Amino acid sequence: MKKLFKNYKSTIILLGSVILGGIIGVVVGPKSSVLEPFGKLFINLMFMILVPLVFFSVSSAMANISGMKRLGKIMGSIMLVFLSTALIAAIIGTIGALIMKPTSGLHIDMFKSLMKTAVGTQTSEKVSFLDQLVNTFTVSDFVDLLSRKNMLQLVVFSIIFGISVSMSGEKAKPLAHLLEAGSVTMMKVVKIIMYYAPIGLGCYFASMVGQLGGQILNGYLKIFILYLILSVVYYFGFFSLYAFVAAGKNGLKTFWKNAVTPSVTALATCSSAACIPANLETVKKIGVPYDIAETVIPLGANMHKDGSVFGGVMKITLLLGLFGKDMTSVSSILGIIGVSLLVGAVMGAIPSG
Prior knowledge:
Helices cover about 75% and strands about 0% of the residues. It contains 16 helices and no strands. Helix 2 runs parallel beside helix 10, helix 13 runs antiparallel to helix 14 and helix 15 crosses helix 16.
């Protein structure tokens, strides 16, 4: 028992604090909002360090990578894994929607007033696909890179900057060492902030449960339940499969030993960007090589969001159901899968996209 607690001490403490927070929220109700500032303190700290953490991590990994051939291999593997797992998520979500038919019984009249409000707030500005693509990967001013809303653009800049340092050879070695030192220092900052995680996440969950309670619109209830079912199946089933494929039984054991902290952080913040610090710290504990970890985590937070893929499937399913469109045709199924893949790749890595 002592050995179990020693190996999983941080996980047990974090889960215990979250469960305790949820219980407090249920018992105290809306009054638990008094704890919200303590929860927001943790989340704001995580968001606050994102820009320097991503810059130093990615640029340092690129500057110290052992040759462009290895970089090409890493990037190729990233794209293959990202696309494959996102496609699996999209197919699972679509199959779940077709089986459970969560929009049965819904009608567009139920949402007319909401749609009128939404239409009234839309702007008339149209952006072409190519312009949108440019805006997705770049910003018009350097200072815009200092916002967590432009994380993908920051990752792109950091990759280019790091590669440029590497290509500059011996003259840029001091800068490469500086980037590496910055990366190590930022990970120490993450470690310090994570000491507060049990208190911060516990208070945040207490406030969230106390204020929201059972406030789920009836029109979305079936879709919400389906989303939860798919998320649980994918998280426990397919994450275990991926870990086993990667490193067998040892990989499976190591993954679940370290997965709780980033998972709970994701659940609390609803943001893959906010999970970057926790994920970086965790993958290094697992033993993922430095250059792979520093490249994959920031890119994955912005371009590989299987939860957003599920969300995309649910949103498209809701719209098709409201307008009485057939979801069983081949074209509809391919459309659902295709659009949900795009949603997972381009949706912002912050709450609400």
